[in-house]
Every structure is written in C-alpha cells, then in structure tokens.
Structure of CDP-diacylglycerol--glycerol-3-phosphate 3-phosphatidyltransferase:
Amino acid sequence: MTIPNLITIARLIMVPIVIVMIMQQRWAAAFILFVVAGVSDAVDGFIARHFNMKSEFGAYIDPLADKSLLVSIYVSLAVVGAIPSWLAIIVVSRDAMIVSAVLLSWVMSRPVEIKPILVSKLNTGAQIGFAAFALAANAYGVELGGFEDLVMLAVATLTVASAGAYLGGWLRHMAG
C-alpha cells in the first residue's frame, strides 16, 4: 500500500461524510471537505508521479474515488434543491454509460482502456468548479448572477460531449 493509495482511500471515505454534510445543509463543512478532497487528489497524483509510487491499484481506485465524489455531490445537491435535477441526471448518466461500456467490453472479452481525453479533462474541471461554486454559494453567499445558467449549460454541454467522445471510441473499439 503506497502513500498515494492511502490518500485516495481517505478521499473515498470522505464521500459519505460530504453527502451527510450536504443533506444536513452544513454547507461550510461540505465545501471545506470538498476542497480537501480536491487537494488530496492533486497531492496523491503528484506523489505517485514524482516519487515513483504509481500502482495498478491506484490506477483503478483514484478515478473511482473521483467519480464517487462528483456523482455523489451532484446527486446530493439536486436532492436538496441546490442545483437542478436535470444537471445531476446528465452527470450521473455519463458516468453510468462509461462504466456500463467498460463492463460490457470486459464481459465480451474485449476490454477497453479508458484514457482521459481533452474534452473529458475539461468536463471534469467544469464539474468540479460548478460543484465548488454550488457549495460555496450556499456556505458563503457567493453568487454568479445571471452567469450561473451559462455555467450550468457549459457543464451540461461538456458532459454530453465527453460522453459522446467516449461512446464513439468505445464503438470503434468494439467494432474493430
């Protein structure tokens, strides 16, 4: 067990705590834990790369922890009415589609490697940024004014574009 893996496991353990904080509308605590989780993601990646601590386990658990946190945050924020349900549905549907495609490719003995692509990285950044904004807005009264709808539309567009890009790559892989 490497230090980056332990940090990632700690981030995974934070997920239900953040959800509870959101459900109890303890916004400042939820925001702070979300920021800590984000920083821990950067720290574990830095340590793994720069101190030669990459592992196969880490390659699987790190994206699992990241997606668990983001999906849980979006669902929780939608449940308490802090973001529109349609946005959470788009975010969750994309990840469900990707996981389903990966599982199906394994079942069919045609495992596909999921590599981050530019639109996916932009999507993740937008999703994280908007989740942080939604938490900060409730914790500290941060407002985007009319810009908020534009940011939500950008998150939705990037999420759908990312899903389409992964689906296209998966279909090419399965047909090849």
In short: The chain has a mean pLDDT of 95. DSSP finds six helices and no strands in the chain.
